[in-house]
Every structure is written in structure tokens, then in C-alpha cells.
Design goal:
Radius of gyration of chain A: 13 Å
Number of helices of chain A: 0
Shape of chain A: globular
Number of strands of chain B: 10
Radius of gyration of chain B: 13 Å
Structural class of chain B: mainly beta
Strand content of chain A: over 45%
Order of helices and strands of chain A: EEEEEEEEEEE
Helix content of chain A: under 10%
Largest interface: A-B, 20 and 24 residues
Oligomer: heterodimer
Order of helices and strands of chain B: EEEEEEEEEE
Number of helices of chain B: 0
Distance between the termini of chain B: 36 Å
Chain lengths: 116, 108
């Protein structure tokens, strides 16, 4: 059974940093693109970033370029999102997803709140 | 970046109604369009990929069509479990793979 479990969310002050993790199981992690999608409270979905199978291709939405970094650890079957210079508008539930053309598998999400 | 719009933003319908949601891309995306359903407190669920390919386990009352810039999701006979928010997403060429703003379907 495919499972994606996010962790690392919490309350952080504006300008601060946070690292999200996504533990993957039930599939061969190195065979799939992985993504981060976020949803601000009461708002719609926003595609944030993705990374290819071997970590050599990374894409980001413009609003997080230069602040967020996507990476993956094959020994731990984990995906990471390092978030720096956080802003109030980054407040959202962050979902980890699997896939490239479409996102069939989603985690349960982890809430990031940026507030003083 | 490709922008996505959806209409309507919300609709009220009754069980048994035929419901159609439209999605428009700011440029041609061929058939690279997905549809998701999200219920409150849950992660989104992929219903349809590549315009019209129904995911395993998704009821056949859901269907998708379109190409280029204009797409639609149709629910042929709305069921109680279909009341939710629906999002389209384009996955054309290279990321970012933007989502539409969503269409909330609630009970009339």
C-alpha cells in the first residue's frame, strides 16, 4: 500500500525557516517524481515544487523560488522541503504527492503557520 | 506560466441532477488536464487524468472531455457523496502545474 506521511509543520515567525519531511513507503521511491502542493486555510490548491527521480531536475512556483529547496534521500525513502525566509502568505497545509502528469497519491498534509 | 480558470465557482444542485463544471487554460495544454475532488478535512482525490481517463474505483457517472484550452467535468447523476470541491490541474510541458481555483458543489 502506497503511503506518504508528512511531518515537520508548525508555528514559525516571519523570516524563519522550517524543513518539511515526507516519508514514502509501499513503492519504489527512486522511480517516481515527487511533489509538494499547498493549501492556505479556506483557499484552493497551489502546486509548489517537484523533483525528478534522481534529483537532477527541480521546479518551483515563482513565489517560492530562491526561498524553498526540494530534496530527497533514497536511503530513507524521504522527500524534504527546506523553507527559508518564510512569509505570512506561506501559511498552508503542505501535501506531499507522487507523480508527474497527475497526482494519484497524497499524504495527509502538515500545517505550516507563519505568524508573529 | 499557464493560468487556469473554472466556472462556476460554486453551484447548488440536487441528488440526481446532471452537473457540468468547466475549466479553461490560458494557452493550449493539449489534453494534459486532471480533475480532483476534495472533501472538507481530506486530501484531494484524483478522479480523472489526461482529460478523460477515469481513475480506478471512480464511479462511471464522472466523465471528462475537452482539448486545447477548454475542458469539462460532468457528473451524470449527482449522488450525496459527490458534494465536494472540484479542482482542475494542467500538466502540460514543464512545471509549474497549476490548479484551477475550484468549484464547490453543494446541496440545493
Amino acid at each position: 500500500e502506497v503511503q506518504l506521511v508528512e511531518s515537520g509543520g508548525g508555528l514559525v515567525q516571519p523570516g524563519g525557516s522550517l524543513r518539511l519531511s515526507c516519508a514514502a513507503s509501499g513503492f519504489t521511491f527512486s522511480n517516481f517524481w515527487m511533489n509538494w502542493v499547498r493549501q492556505a486555510p479556506g483557499k484552493g490548491l497551489e502546486w509548489v515544487a517537484n523533483i525528478n527521480q534522481d534529483g537532477t531536475e527541480k521546479y518551483y512556483v515563482d513565489s517560492v523560488k530562491g526561498r524553498f529547496t526540494n530534496s530527497r534521500d533514497y536511503a530513507k525513502n524521504s522527500l524534504y522541503l527546506q523553507m527559508n525566509s518564510l512569509r505570512a502568505e506561506d501559511t498552508a497545509v503542505y501535501y506531499c504527492t507522487r507523480g508527474y502528469i497527475s497526482n494519484l497519491y497524497w499524504g495527509q498534509g502538515t500545517l505550516v503557520t507563519v505568524s508573529s | 506560466d499557464i493560468q487556469m480558470t473554472q466556472s462556476p465557482s460554486s453551484l447548488s444542485a440536487s441528488v440526481g441532477d446532471r452537473v457540468t463544471i468547466t475549466c479553461r487554460a490560458s494557452q493550449s495544454i493539449s489534453r494534459n488536464l486532471n480533475w480532483y475532488q476534495q472533501k472538507p478535512g481530506n486530501a484531494p482525490k484524483l478522479l480523472i487524468s489526461v482529460t478523460s481517463s477515469l481513475e480506478s474505483g471512480v464511479p462511471s457517472r464522472f466523465s471528462g472531455s475537452g482539448s486545447g484550452t477548454d475542458f469539462s467535468l460532468t457528473i451524470s447523476s449527482l449522488q450525496p457523496e459527490d458534494f465536494a470541491t472540484y479542482y482542475c490541474q494542467q500538466s502540460y510541458s514543464t512545471p509549474p502545474f497549476t490548479f484551477g481555483p475550484g468549484t464547490k458543489v453543494d446541496i440545493k
